[in-house]
Amino acid sequence: MPLRIDENTEKVIDEFVSKGNLTTGALVDFTDLSRPTVTKRLDRLHAAEFIEYVHEPTALWQLIEDPRSD
Fold first, then answer.
1. Which of 3, 36, 33 is nearest to 15 (CA)?
2. For the stretch 41-53, what's the b/e string if a residue is b when 16 or more beta carbons lie within 10 angstroms of its beta carbon?
3. CA 17 from chain center: how many Å?
4. Under DSSP, is residue 60 helix (H, G, I), strand (E, B) or coil?
5. Domain-by-domain residue ranges, the chain?
6. What's the CA gap between 50 and 64, in Å, rounded?
7. CB 41 within 8 Å of CB 50
8. Where do the HTH marR-type domain residues begin and end (predicted)?
9. pLDDT tens profile 24-60
10. 3-state class (DSSP) for residue 17
11. Which CATH architecture has domain 7-64?
């Protein structure tokens, strides 16, 4: 199933592109989205292999590839 990129996913991806590696908490702060919304978007991006954990205990994420560039 292809990744659905909605407005909230766009906000999360934009933060990765502009700031680099980010924690879940930082994404919540920078996007003004709720933690469950950010977590859901991260789970989808991770399942589609566009992001990966850099450090799982702190939930530090890294964008591997921008899914919008396809």
1. 33
2. bbebbeeeebbee
3. 10
4. strand
5. 7-64
6. 5
7. no
8. 19-58
9. 999 999 999 999 999 999 999 999 999 999 998 999 9
10. helix
11. Orthogonal Bundle (1.10)
